[in-house]
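Run log // design_07
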């Protein structure tokens, strides 16, 4: 298993919310969850392709950098956080559609941000153009830093020292 220099594991005030390690054998389950979470946004853009979706996840599938998001003992989502060129990169943050809109994504993102070292590295993320995730990241202090045909790049500055 590849090591990953990740920040400390997040701490949640809600005892029902937790994270769990990801195993090499979790890929199919994660790909299915990502598909459920991303499909509406991709269909809206006319870009839904289940095989391309699996390939994109496979390209960045590093279990050591990934964590399951658990709520009330159930795996409801996952994220991937890794070091990247002077910043942290949040490659994935997906919740099952049944878990969306309940504040779980915000709780996870806030805990990840709180776990980053003050005066340390900024946090970067890329969101699909037209996805509701763009507003989600802006509400959590991210500013747009670039864009491509299908994606918008964001960065959140490091916490003050």
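design_07 sequence
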């Amino acid at each position: 298993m590849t090591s990953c220099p990740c920040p400390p594991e997040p701490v949640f005030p809600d005892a029902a919310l937790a994270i769990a390690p990801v195993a090499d054998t979790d890929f199919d389950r994660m790909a299915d969850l990502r598909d459920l979470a991303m499909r509406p946004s991709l269909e809206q853009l006319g870009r839904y392709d289940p095989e391309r979706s699996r390939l994109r996840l496979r390209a960045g599938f590093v279990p050591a950098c990934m964590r399951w998001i658990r709520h009330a003992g159930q795996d409801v989502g996952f994220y991937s956080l890794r070091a990247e060129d002077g910043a942290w990169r949040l490659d994935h943050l997906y919740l099952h559609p049944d878990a969306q809109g309940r504040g779980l994504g915000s709780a996870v993102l806030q805990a990840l941000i709180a776990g980053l070292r003050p005066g340390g590295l900024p946090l970067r993320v890329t969101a699909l153009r037209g996805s509701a995730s763009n507003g989600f990241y802006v509400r959590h202090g991210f500013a747009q830093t670039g864009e491509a045909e299908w994606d918008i790049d964001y960065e959140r500055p490091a916490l003050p020292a």
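The mean pLDDT is 90.
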